[in-house]
Design a protein that fits this description.
This protein is α+β, with helices and mostly antiparallel strands and about 525 residues long. The protein has helices spanning about 5, 15-25, 45-50, 115-135, 140-150, 185-195, 200-205, 215-220, 230-235, 265-330, 340-365, 370-375, 375-390, 410-435, 480-490; strands at about 30-35, 40, 80-85, 90-100, 105-110, 155-165, 170-175, 210, 240-245, 250-260, 395-400, 435-445, 450-460, 495-500, 505-515.
C-alpha cells in the first residue's frame, strides 16, 4: 500500500518496504484523504475502524472534516470527531498532517469511544451529585438526572419513577426521550391486567437490576401491551434495563433505561445506571427527610403559637372579660358604678385591647413573612423590629448596610430561613432576657474565596443564666423548641447558630451561613397513579 505519509519521507526503497509492513500492521488507523475529506487510501486498521469495504476505499466519505489548506498547519494537535457507522457510533481522536504540494493529508486516528464515554459518565455522576445537593425541587432534580442519563449514553429514553410511602403506587418524576402521558400508569396497569410482564416491578420487588435484550420487539408483538404500544413505539429502542432506587434499605423508586438500536447492556453500562440510580435515590431520600423535618417544624410552630397565645392574648382577653363582668355584677346588684370607675375600666379595656392587637400583629408578621421577604430581608426585619418595639417598648436597632444589594441575589428559601432564625432570636430576647434594648445586624463577610452571610441579634438583658431560671443556651429555651429549630434551619444551608454571653451584659445570637458562589419479600400489589 503506497500511503502518501510513507512516500513523502524520502526514504530508500528498503526502508519504504519496512515502513510498509508497519503501516499494514499498525493498531491505529492511517489514511490519506483529499481536500473534500474523502478517503484515497487506508490501512487495514482504518478500514476496520470505519467499517469500510476492503478494496473500495477510494472516494468513500471519511469521518474527518475537509481540511482547509489555507488555515491548516502542517501538523495540527489532536482533535476528536464522531463517526456514525452502520449499527454503531464511534469517536475518533485524530491528527492531520499535510503532504506538501500534493493537495492531500495523512490522518492518524484511534478509537476513543470507550474512554470518552467513561469520562462523560464520570462527569454525569458528578453533575448528578451536585444537582442532588443544590436543587430544592425533587421533580427538577430527577428530571435533570433523567436527561443526563439519556444524553451521556445516547439512550432512546429514560424514566425515573418514585414509590409512595405505602409502597404501592408509582409516580413519574423524571423523563427523557418519551413524551409525557397523563394516563401512562393507568394504561400500564391495564397492560398488567392483560398479562403483560412488567420488568420494572420485578426489579423493584427483587431489589435487583433487570436487563432484557430485544425488549422492543417483544412489547410491540405482545397484545397485552396494546394500551401503551403507541406511546412506547417512538423513539425506537431495543434493549431495556430497570434499576431499583434504594435508600436506607427501602425501595423508593425505579430507573428505566431504553437503549437505542445497536446498543447493548454490558457491565459498564449497568454500573453507570446503578451509580445514577444511587444519586436519584439520594435525592428522593433527601426530599423525604426534608418533608418530615418540615412536618415537625409545622407542628412545633403551631405549639409555639398556642403557647404565645396563651401567654399573652388569652390572658389579656381573660382580663378584659373579668373587667367587663365586674361592671355587670355591680349593675345586677343595683349599684350603678361611679363615673370614675367606668372611666377607669374603659381605659383599662382600651389599653389591654391595644396590647392584644399589637401581639396579634406581631404574630402575623412572624407567621407570614414571605411577601415582606420578597421585597428584601432588611425590610422584613425592619417590620419585625418595629412591631416588636410597638408591642414591648424595647429600643430596637437594625444595621443592614454592610449587606448591600448582595442579599437580593440569594435564594428566597434561604432568606426566609434567615428571617425565621432572627425572628426566633428576637422572640427569645423578648420572652426571657428582660432587656431594655435589642439590635440586629446583617453583613456579608469574606471567608477565603467564599462569602458568608452573618446575622446577629444582641440584647442588654440578663444573659444566658439570668434570674428568670431559664437556660437560653440549652434546649429548654422557648419551650425546648426555639434553639433546635434555629439550628436545623441553619444546617439546611450548611450554617451554624451560636449563642454567646456578652461581657458587658446581655446575649448575642450569631448566625453564619456560607453563600453559594453563584449567589440535601412478598410481591407488592402495585396501583397506578398519575
Amino acid at each position: 500500500m503506497d500511503l502518501a505519509a510513507r512516500t513523502a519521507t524520502g526514504r530508500s526503497p528498503e526502508s519504504s518496504d519496512s515502513s510498509g509492513e508497519v503501516v499494514e500492521h499498525a493498531p491505529d488507523g492511517l489514511a490519506v484523504i483529499d481536500a473534500d475529506g474523502r478517503f484515497l487510501e487506508a490501512n487495514p486498521a482504518a478500514v476496520l475502524l470505519c467499517g469500510l469495504v476492503p478494496g473500495a476505499v477510494a472516494g468513500t466519505r471519511s469521518p474527518f472534516p475537509p481540511p482547509a489548506a489555507a488555515t491548516t498547519s502542517r501538523r495540527a494537535g489532536d482533535q476528536t470527531v464522531e463517526w456514525a457507522a452502520p449499527g454503531s457510533r464511534r469517536e475518533f481522536s485524530y491528527v492531520l498532517q499535510e503532504v506538501p504540494g500534493r493537495g492531500r493529508w495523512v490522518v492518524s486516528f484511534r478509537d476513543v469511544t470507550v474512554s470518552r464515554l467513561q469520562q462523560r459518565r464520570l462527569a454525569a455522576i458528578a453533575k448528578a451529585a451536585s444537582s442532588v445537593a443544590s436543587k430544592r425541587s425533587l421533580t427538577g432534580t430527577l428530571e435533570a438526572l433523567a436527561q443526563e442519563v439519556a444524553r451521556t449514553d445516547s439512550l432512546a429514553g429514560v424514566q425515573i419513577l418514585t414509590a409512595n410511602s405505602a409502597g404501592d403506587r408509582l409516580h413519574v418524576m423524571g423523563a427523557a426521550g418519551f413524551g409525557r402521558a397523563a394516563d401512562f400508569f393507568e394504561k400500564l396497569m391495564e397492560c398488567r391486567a392483560r398479562g403483560a410482564r412488567l420488568l420494572m416491578l420485578e426489579a423493584l420487588d427483587e431489589r435487583e437490576p433487570v436487563v432484557m435484550a430485544n425488549r422492543y420487539a417483544a412489547v410491540m408483538q405482545d397484545p397485552a401491551w396494546a394500551p401503551l404500544r403507541e406511546h412506547l413505539r417512538h423513539p425506537r429502542w431495543d434493549w431495556f434495563a430497570s434499576v431499583p432506587l434504594l435508600a436506607r434499605g427501602e425501595r423508593v423508586g425505579i430507573l428505566n433505561a431504553f437503549f437505542a438500536p445497536g446498543q447493548t447492556v454490558g457491565e459498564t453500562e449497568l454500573e453507570f445506571l446503578l451509580a445514577m440510580a444511587e444519586q436519584a435515590a439520594m435525592a428522593v431520600d433527601h426530599a423525604s427527610l426534608l418533608e418530615r423535618e418540615r412536618d415537625v417544624a409545622r407542628r412545633e410552630e403551631r405549639q409555639k403559637l398556642a403557647r404565645d397565645l396563651h401567654d399573652s392574648v388569652v390572658q389579656q382577653v381573660f382580663s378584659m372579660m373579668m373587667q367587663a363582668k365586674s361592671l355587670g355584677v355591680l349593675v345586677r346588684r343595683g349599684l350603678p358604678p361611679a363615673p370614675e370607675t367606668v372611666a377607669q375600666v374603659a381605659d383599662d379595656l382600651s389599653s389591654t385591647a391595644e396590647d392584644v392587637l399589637a401581639d396579634l400583629r406581631g404574630m402575623v408578621v412572624e407567621l407570614r413573612p414571605g411577601t415582606t421577604v420578597q421585597h428584601g430581608l432588611a425590610a422584613a426585619l425592619r417590620s419585625l423590629l418595629d412591631t416588636t418595639a410597638a408591642r414591648t417598648g424595647l429600643q430596637v436597632e437594625l444595621d443592614a448596610d454592610d449587606a448591600g444589594g448582595e442579599l437580593a441575589g440569594l435564594d428566597g428559601d434561604l432568606l426566609e430561613d434567615v428571617y425565621r432564625i432572627v425572628a426566633e432570636a428576637v422572640h427569645n430576647s423578648v420572652k426571657h432576657a428582660a432587656a431594655g434594648s435589642l439590635s440586629v445586624r446583617l453583613a456579608m463577610t469574606a471567608h477565603g474565596r467564599r462569602r458568608r452571610l452573618v446575622a446577629e441579634v444582641s440584647d442588654d438583658g440578663r444573659g444566658l443564666h439570668g434570674d428568670g431560671g431559664e437556660d437560653r443556651a440549652g434546649t429548654s429555651a422557648s419551650g425546648g423548641f426555639g434553639m433546635t429549630v434555629m439550628c436545623e434551619r441553619a444546617a439546611r444551608w450548611g450554617g451554624t447558630v451560636r449563642v454567646h454571653e456578652v461581657p458587658t451584659g446581655g446575649t448575642r445570637v450569631r448566625l453564619t451561613l456560607p453563600v453559594p458562589s453563584a449567589v440535601p419479600t412478598p410481591t407488592t400489589h402495585w396501583t397506578a397513579t398519575t
